[in-house]
User: Fold these one by one.
Assistant:
Number 1:
Amino acid sequence: MVEKINLRQSLWALECFFPPDFVASLPEESLLRELLCAQHSRAEMWRQHISDCLELALRYKLRNADLKARLQKGDWETFSATINELRCAKFLEKLFGIGSLRWHPPGRKEKVGEFEVVLSNLNKPIFVEVKTIVPRELERMEERVKDKLHQYVEQVDIPCFLHVTIRKAGDLEDFNGRSFKKFLREELSKVNIGDIEKLRKIPDYRDDRTGLHLEIGILPILGEPRPQSCHIGIISGEARFSKDHIHIRHSLKKAEVKLPEEKPCLVLLCSSTEFPIDEDDILNALLGTLGIHYQLISDESASAPEPEPFRQPDGFYQPRRNNKLSATGVYQRIFTERRIEGKLEIYHNPWAANPLDYSIFEGKGVRQLIKIDEGRMEWRD
């Protein structure tokens, strides 16, 4: 009995947002119901961790209709993103002390994911934006690209079927339907209707901006009368983001537009799953995709120099762009036997308009990648 009473008292914040009548109304198959009701040690650890995060929200008077709706929506991505915002705030409060956070004003449209770190030794507060990286599952990506292709292909008035092979899905967040339709009309207009009876291809469709690459074959429509619009007969190939760093850049792009210009800005990235965000993908996203320089020599007797790695100029950190972002942090969850703890790494922007002073995090267990001199960065623990 004592254990049950203590557990109930420790979860008081959780019950403020998820009262018993709401929990009872959740579908049996709901992931949220599983989290709130499952009777095993891991679920109890999760409930305690989430209750601690919600206690912070209540303490800072963040409880409003928007926060409650996001938590109770039942969509796991929305729930994860909301809890990530609170757990990042709680982690920073643990580093800098009670009262070090400020929601004033409480973010755009009262969103919890925007707040400031206010310290007595800082001339300006640090603006913090929290973004959750959501992995795109293969099945969902395939359905998404198929839906988009069907939608635009059937608006092209050329009587044939297409065999579309997805070689690279790229960043489907920015799929340009108008460009794709124009390409189809132009290429199919060059095809003689009689030639459609002989299975053939049109040029591949490539979108350098999004990375989408499609191979397109033409199939005849058998029987009369011929329909007057183009259709997709077959879609094959894998539809997934070409690289995880592309999705990370897209998340940073959405965060950057919200950042103020007059103070240091830190964007914290979290994973929506228990798997950490890969360091190589972060470096590719921020500093540029890693490449290798090979030197060709004409003298066959001479030994070739060792290949040299270099960063291509496609990173989010740029000398003349995205300068409002002072640094990017990666928050990771660490699971122990009894609790869920946090770990933070910070990647400073060497071209930031308002640099984030790395000494603020020194001695606090935060690993940081900082600028040493022109063209060179170094890890500091």
Note: Residues 79-135+243-381 form one domain.
Number 2:
Amino acid sequence: MTRSDLRTILHVPVLAVWCLFVFMIPFYFLPSGLPQPGDVLVFVLVPVVLAGWNGRLNRLLSSAIRPLLWFTLWVCLINYGWALVAGKWTALKAYTIFPLYYIFNAAVFSTGIILYQRFGQLILRITLDCVVAAVMVQVTVAILARGQAYRDALFFNNANQLGYYALLAASLMAMAQRKLRIGLLKTSVVLLACAYLALLSASRSAVAGIAILFFLLVFQNPKIIIVASLAAVGLVTLGPVAQAIETVEQRVHRDRHMTFAEERGYDRMWKYKEYMIIGAGEGDVNRFNDNPRQHGREIHSSIATVLFSYGIVGITLFMWFVVRIVRGAPIRTALMLLPTLAQTVAHQGMRFTMLWVLLAFFVALKMPGPVLGKLAPPEPTPTPA
């Protein structure tokens, strides 16, 4: 972060709040599903951003927000409709809690887009710097306070969250490296740090996603992989890194008593296919529990969750949003979303706030124009008639 960027942040409170929010994303202090300290900042950020917004958006930016708002509206309609039919409004994991997650993350995505229109690519630089700072804090803590846990979660509530965050942070760096002109050494160190966090979490999908990301980077900038690989060879002999690699290998070769479809809940889509017409909602998963001695589980897949929970209309609206996100992006930048897409095959990551920061970042990154060093010029004040 340059001195100029830092001075701007200190003089513009909305940027300071955004930076603190992005930095705080990986630090959980409450159970999953409850607002974390960083999330609380969004309730301050959104009103301030909207108050300073003139109500207009660039056509390319607004085209990404519109389908997301329609999808969020459909999520509310389906879940509150099922809550009305089933009469379940207050039970734990009831229908009514899930729309709040989508509303919250839609607000995060829209806020990032609006901030980009106001401040230009300054918002991209400081967002990336805050993510890098959060990654480095986690790596430092992991190395200095490495425990004997089979899978580490660090400041998250479970290891899969750590792995998913590491993958999203690595993807953010990979897609921004060329346009923001990030140095080779910094890019390599950050990617290596994210790979270490993914190994630490022993999340097979996160490790696989970062492996895909590294493979894609071979064609974009082979020098990054060379530097990161040389550093990895030097670090692999360290105890924490070697132990993390061993844990991942154990999980990969672990015997499974269920098929992948059963383990991840994909079989629900053909066992209860009638729900996919309008959607089953995301609450009351015990409806689909075949074993009365066990609690029902959510589908561990983002796309499968959207299709089963929100039906044909829901998946259509969501795919409309995805197309609008990717449309117009350079192929090499769009490919950086593939690792995240691969990870969602085995995990439900739609409610993870960092995903929506990444998507807002991606939309802003594909916009044409030079890297701005200063604030976008203020709009002229209309002269009175």
Note: The chain is about 65% helix and 0% strand.
